[in-house]
């Protein structure tokens, strides 16, 4: 069985496909569904009708995202005709861009290898592929803007003339266009919209802020007009948002836009953004001094606490698995051990398991009662019962493990040497102590079972009428747990020397047996009353 923290430790890669489709809902749905292969989760979907572009952010283990990329490409080749595509964003193909980004437990170099493998596979599907960014095989293709130069129409013409041939796939651009496949670190796709202006102004502003034209490091930018919205757009990619934060790019854009009497009307983040990028901008605009995101951002503190708790539980589970505790084992394995000729686990552990099953059924009836208008008058009480039953369930499982360990102690005591009188005295004392502990565990099971029978009667009497048989079944299991546990107490009592403590134990056994019989009768009456 995997440890509790395994899900948090698996290697993850983000796959961020950009499709040349943002207007047809049915196609958007089909492209999304194609990418959601087993093992891949969708974190974000952004469809923009002005750009006529769909951006998905998916995450999974490397093999899963490889399958996602191939499935998404096949769907795009079938659904998108680039001869008919119109949109304001530069593009070269149906699956325009396919970058892989390391998230956890995967290096950028491994993403480079993954991108090249996917590129080769897409080429075998008949799609021309250009490797870019860190995956590029040619230095001039590291920049995505260079790969997309001339867009679909210009690239098709150049390839037809024998120039700018793809890295993989056929040396011809069909109706699905070409795909740029790459590997990169996390980036922030950040768009700014300005009221007024024209496409010439948009291009000038983009040129003044992007790194390749002498602007800010780590900023790629393109500008174009959105005449139907009366705006221009400067679309930016911040390739290192820690070194060049969002606020710095935005402030430079505002400064340059003021030369044209323009101001930024709105901004937009496409896809996901690292928390640190937003925190840095928030601190800048709020003028916060000494801001420590790790300490002061609530969600980060909670995430850190969750991670610590997951690690603690993982350690506990690993230790419990090492000991062979019941809660970490499959029920089938426990039953096999129970049926074997080994002395433990035995009747005491089985009694505790019956108690846990009874507690679970009590919790089930309470859960089925809460939230229903018909039972509003017992809403709060049932919530309390559900919490109590969950705690008792855990206690029973712990007692099942203690019972097995307690009997192991009896066996160990009986195996002590007894050659000399001193050894015989020590051995007898050890046996008596082990038998007393072996009595206490099943006795505790019986006590808790009797206490929980009160709740079984309550949920049968006032819980959801559709679940009264479950409440009664809980009572039956708890009665059985009590009686089975008491049998184990009695057999251990038989090995103890008579004394005041033994007399008291025998008296408690009889009292618990009588009380469980009374409560079981009360559960049956409540059940029949509500039939």
What does this structure look like?
The structure is a single chain. This protein is of the alpha+beta class. It has 3 domains: 6-183, Formiminotransferase-cyclodeaminase, Chain B, domain 1 (2-Layer Sandwich); 188-279, 2-Layer Sandwich (Alpha-Beta Plaits), CATH 3.30.70.670; 324-529, Formiminotetrahydrofolate cyclodeaminase monomer, up-and-down helical bundle (Four Helix Bundle (Hemerythrin (Met), subunit A)). It has helices spanning 6-9, 25-35, 62-79, 108-124, 144-147, 151-160, 199-209, 246-258, 275-286, 293-296, 298-323, 331-339, 347-369, 379-414, 421-462, 468-493, 500-529, and strands at residues 12-15, 18-19, 40-48, 53-60, 95-104, 129-133, 179-183, 188-195, 219-226, 231-238, 264-270. The longest helix is centred in the C-terminal third of the chain and has 42 residues, at 421-462. The protein is elongated. The two termini are 42 Å apart. Mean pLDDT is 89; it is low at 1-8.
Provide a compact summary of the structure.
The protein has 531 residues and is an alpha+beta fold. The chain has 3 domains: 6-183, 2-Layer Sandwich (Formiminotransferase-cyclodeaminase, Chain B, domain 1); 188-279, Alpha-Beta Plaits, CATH 3.30.70; 324-529, Formiminotetrahydrofolate cyclodeaminase monomer, up-and-down helical bundle (Four Helix Bundle (Hemerythrin (Met), subunit A), Up-down Bundle), CATH 1.20.120.680. 56% of the residues lie in helices and 14% in strands.
């Amino acid at each position: 069985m995997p440890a509790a923290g395994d899900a948090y430790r698996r290697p993850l890669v983000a796959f961020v496909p950009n499709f040349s489709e943002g207007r047809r809902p049915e196609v958007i749905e089909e492209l999304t569904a194609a990418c959601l292969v087993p093992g891949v989760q969708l974190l974000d979907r952004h469809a923009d009708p002005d750009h006529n572009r769909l951006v998905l952010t998916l995450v999974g283990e490397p093999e899963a995202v490889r399958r996602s990329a191939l499935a998404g490409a096949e769907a795009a080749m079938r659904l998108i005709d680039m001869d008919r595509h119109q949109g304001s964003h530069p593009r070269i193909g149906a699956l325009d861009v396919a970058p892989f980004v390391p998230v956890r437990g995967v290096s950028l170099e491994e993403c480079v290898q993954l991108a090249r493998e996917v590129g080769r596979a897409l080429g075998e599907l008949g799609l021309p592929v250009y490797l870019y960014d860190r995956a590029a095989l040619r230095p001039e293709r590291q920049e995505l803007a260079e790969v997309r130069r001339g867009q679909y129409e210009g690239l098709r013409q150049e390839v037809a003339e024998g120039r700018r041939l793809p890295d993989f796939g056929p040396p011809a651009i069909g109706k699905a266009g070409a795909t740029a496949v790459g590997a990169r670190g996390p980036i922030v796709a950040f768009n700014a919209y300005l009221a007024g202006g024209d496409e010439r102004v948009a291009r000038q502003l983009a040129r003044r802020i992007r790194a390749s034209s002498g602007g800010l490091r780590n900023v790629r930018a393109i500008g174009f007009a959105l005449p139907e919205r009366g705006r221009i757009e400067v679309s930016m990619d911040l390739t290192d948002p820690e070194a060049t934060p969002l606020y710095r790019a935005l402030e430079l854009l505002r400064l340059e836009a003021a030369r044209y009497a323009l101001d930024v009307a709105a901004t937009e983040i496409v896809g996901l953004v690292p928390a640190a990028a937003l925190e840095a901008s928030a601190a800048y605009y709020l003028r916060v001094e000494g801001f420590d995101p790790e300490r002061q951002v609530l969600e980060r503190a909670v995430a850190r606490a969750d991670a610590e708790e997951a690690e603690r539980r993982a350690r506990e589970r690993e230790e419990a698995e090492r000991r062979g505790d019941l809660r970490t084992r499959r029920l089938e394995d426990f039953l096999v051990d129970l049926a074997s000729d080994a002395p433990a686990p035995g009747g005491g552990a089985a009694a505790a398991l019956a108690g846990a099953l009874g507690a679970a059924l009590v919790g089930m009836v309470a859960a089925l009662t809460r939230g229903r208008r018909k039972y509003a008058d017992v809403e709060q009480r049932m919530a309390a019962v559900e919490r109590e039953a969950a705690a008792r369930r855990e206690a029973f499982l712990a007692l099942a493990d203690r019972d097995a360990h307690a009997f192991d102690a009896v066996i160990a005591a009986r195996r002590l040497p007894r050659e000399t009188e001193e050894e015989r005295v020590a051995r007898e004392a050890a046996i008596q102590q082990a038998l007393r502990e072996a009595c206490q565990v099943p006795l505790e099971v019986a006590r808790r079972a009797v206490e929980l029978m009160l709740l079984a009667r309550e949920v049968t009497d006032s819980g959801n009428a559709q679940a009264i048989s479950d409440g009664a079944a809980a009572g039956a299991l708890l009665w059985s747990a009590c009686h089975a546990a008491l049998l184990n107490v009695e057999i251990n009592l038989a090995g103890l020397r008579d004394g005041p403590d033994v007399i008291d134990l025998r008296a408690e056994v009889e009292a618990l047996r009588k009380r469980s019989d009374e409560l079981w009768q009360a559960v049956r009456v409540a059940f029949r009353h509500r039939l």
